[in-house]
Automatic annotation (TrEMBL):
Highest taxon of the lineage: Bacteria
PROSITE patterns: GST_CTER, GST_NTER
Annotated GST C-terminal domain residues: 89-217
Family: Belongs to the GST superfamily.
Domain (GST N-terminal): residue spans on this chain: 4-86
Record protein name field: Glutathione S-transferase
Length: 217
């Protein structure tokens, strides 16, 4: 019997979705990509929220009857189900969770919001807001850069879902954020290159549906 295929609701610009795409591809698990029409506001549509995600966000993973959201939960689910990339010991699993929480609160969230406002926002971003977001992102980047100064991967001896989570926004063109990450945080820069060597890695705009657009602001 053919195994049921995963369905993943995602779109090209979404680094949060790319975290889960990277994992599925690294696992060698085929999936059907369902495009989320984010830029036409579908995630705010009550019917979409009712059917797919009450939180109003991509990604959404469908595994048969299971509909799962939050990239961290999806990554953990896939790691447990396939027995890969979740950490080798209980201690490592806890470390992985610690970094995924840090990513969702500080590393991805401030940077992704900054990039979104600079590249895709409907109105010109307020410089005061941008300065605040950038300062918070820089603080988080410095912490991860220091952690990576003495190790190749965030946890343990190989890539884990902590790496897939934290790197979700690291593979987009530099002009979308205007920040030269590799130059400013060289250990993050080296880690990005290592991650590109993980079998299954792909450019987010090629791995997910949707149209790449030029930065707006
Ligand atoms: N913590 C969530 C964040 C998901 C998220 O913010 N997704 C964005 C796209 S990258 C979204 O759908 N945002 C809709 C909105 O904020 O209205 C995760 O990791 O899945």
């Amino acid at each position: 019997m053919e195994k049921p295929m995963y369905r993943l609701h995602c779109f090209g610009q979404s680094g949060n979705a790319f975290k889960t795409v990277f994992m599925l591809r690294a696992l060698g698990e085929p999936f059907e990509a369902v495009q989320v029409d984010f830029f036409n506001g579908i995630t705010r549509d009550p019917a979409w929220r009712e059917e797919h995600n009450e939180m109003g966000e991509a990604p959404v993973l469908e595994d048969g009857d299971l509909h799962l959201t939050q990239s961290g939960a999806i990554l953990t689910y896939l790691a447990n189900k396939h027995g890969r990339f979740g950490g080798a010991t209980e201690r490592e699993k806890l470390e992985v969770l610690r970094w995924i929480l840090f990513d969702n609160h500080k590393f991805t969230s401030y940077f992704a919001t900054y990039r979104f406002m600079k590249s895709f926002g409907a109105t010109e971003p307020d410089p005061v807001v941008m300065k605040f977001l950038l300062g918070r992102a820089e603080g988080a980047f410095a912490i991860v850069d220091k952690h990576l100064a003495t190790r190749d991967w965030m946890v343990g001896d190989g890539p884990t879902i902590a790496d897939f989570s934290l790197s979700g926004y690291m593979f987009y063109p530099q002009d979308e954020s205007g920040i030269d990450i590799a130059q400013r945080w060289p250990h993050i820069g080296a880690w990005i290159e290592r991650l590109k060597g993980v079998p299954g890695w792909a450019n987010p705009y090629e791995a997910m549906p949707g149209t790449q657009t030029a930065p707006k602001w």
